[in-house]
């Protein structure tokens, strides 16, 4: 029996998150959304297409009006308006109208991009999230933040657009590359750090099983992380307030992602940004020194970086201040009071940011320690 978490939007039931171990239950779920009468377009990236594209298409073949597929080249560098335009053109050629539906099959790049196409094509068309990376399962497929990068600014153009369904086949996590798996784990850690100290303890206790990708452990981990995200986005769907807590590690993280030209993955940059945010929290006497080191060192067994080489602190500062989180000239920073409790802070100074960047700046001395 599939596990299911309903998500509310403006206090009304909006969509379900369905947890399965295969794609077998997908058609049944789509049928509930009237898919028999619709054209469906699977939007995916080249890598996921190779792995799962045919399997998902075959499953839906002959059941809906028409099933087509659009695959774009994998990678963050393609999460942009050019790819969006390519998808629009394909949908027009295939005669998609407002009653039809898009299926985002892939990681966060595919989900963000397809969701944005769904928000804007013909002023809005339904879409379903079928997340296939750990990151997309625990974070990006839920909550309706969609969008693309613009001129290398992260997520600069976007829309809130709720999916009609989030269908997770947890078994696909076994084909993820190590680095991608641990990149997704950074968002798991983030969720525990901002909201759930007990879950954080559980992650430590289950470290071995998580790294081994033991299916029952992964299932519990994904469901618990999704429950945190559900709780946050239900209270504040359009980030007027506390949803910003989900941005822990992202303020400096997005700056590093851009500065490194997407060489480092999103979750890796979130890990670095979280260490920096925890450092600022310690220096502001919000977080104890012990907790700072505890948080920093917790990333290490999950192969996540806690320092980065070849960065220019002044450039990172500049990029941090050009992210979307500026309000009336002040950066909205997410800091930690303790493990399991984050707060929004608007008092972080340039010097505090620079000191935090220095803390994560890899130096020759670190190499000899
Ligand atoms: N909308 C949100 O709330 C939200 C939340 C977090 C992150 N994001 C965004 O998500 C993006 C990162 O997502 P991501 O880390 O999933 O990256 P991604 O979508 O680029 O996927 C990473 C790589 O894994 C491959 N892949 C996907 N599923 C696979 C599988 N099962 N087996 C093997 N390979 C597979 C992909 O082809 C790709 O090469 C960033 O753009 C970030 O900004 C959005
Ligand atoms: O869902 C949210 O809200 C988040 O902030 C989740 C983040 O993990 C995600 O990376 C998001 O895309 C960041 O949003 P942005 O508005 O800072 O671009
Ligand atoms: Zn993120």
From TrEMBL:
Cofactors (names): Co(2+); Zn(2+); NAD(+)
Q: Start and end of every 3-dehydroquinate synthase C-terminal domain?
A: 184-326
In the record, biological process GO terms are: amino acid biosynthetic process; aromatic amino acid family biosynthetic process; chorismate biosynthetic process
Per its UniProt entry, which superkingdom is the organism in?
A: Bacteria
GO molecular-function terms, A-Z: 3-dehydroquinate synthase activity; metal ion binding; nucleotide binding
Pathway noted in the entry: Metabolic intermediate biosynthesis; chorismate biosynthesis; chorismate from D-erythrose 4-phosphate and phosphoenolpyruvate: step 2/7
Transcription among keywords: no
Which reactions fall under this protein's catalytic activity?
A: 7-phospho-2-dehydro-3-deoxy-D-arabino-heptonate = 3-dehydroquinate + phosphate
**Where's it found, cell-wise?**
Cytoplasm
How many cofactors are bound and how? Binds 1 divalent metal cation per subunit. Can use either Co(2+) or Zn(2+).
E.C. no: 4.2.3.4
Which Pfam families does UniProt cross-reference here?
A: DHQ_synthase (PF01761), DHQS_C (PF24621)
Positions binding NAD(+) in this chain are: 108-112, 132-133, 145, 154
Establish whether keyword Protein transport is in the entry: no
What SUPFAM superfamilies does the entry give?
Answer: Dehydroquinate synthase-like
Q: Give Gene Ontology CC terms.
A: cytoplasm
Q: Where does Zn(2+) bind?
A: 187, 250, 266
The UniProt keywords, alphabetically, are:
Amino-acid biosynthesis, Aromatic amino acid biosynthesis, Cobalt, Cytoplasm, Lyase, Metal-binding, NAD, Nucleotide-binding, Zinc
Query: Which PANTHER family does the annotation name?
Result: 3-DEHYDROQUINATE SYNTHASE (PTHR43622)
Q: Which family does the UniProt entry place this protein in?
A: Belongs to the sugar phosphate cyclases superfamily. Dehydroquinate synthase family.
Q: State what this protein does.
A: Catalyzes the conversion of 3-deoxy-D-arabino-heptulosonate 7-phosphate (DAHP) to dehydroquinate (DHQ).
What this protein is called in its record is 3-dehydroquinate synthase
Name the source organism: Waltera intestinalis
Q: Gene behind this chain? A: aroB
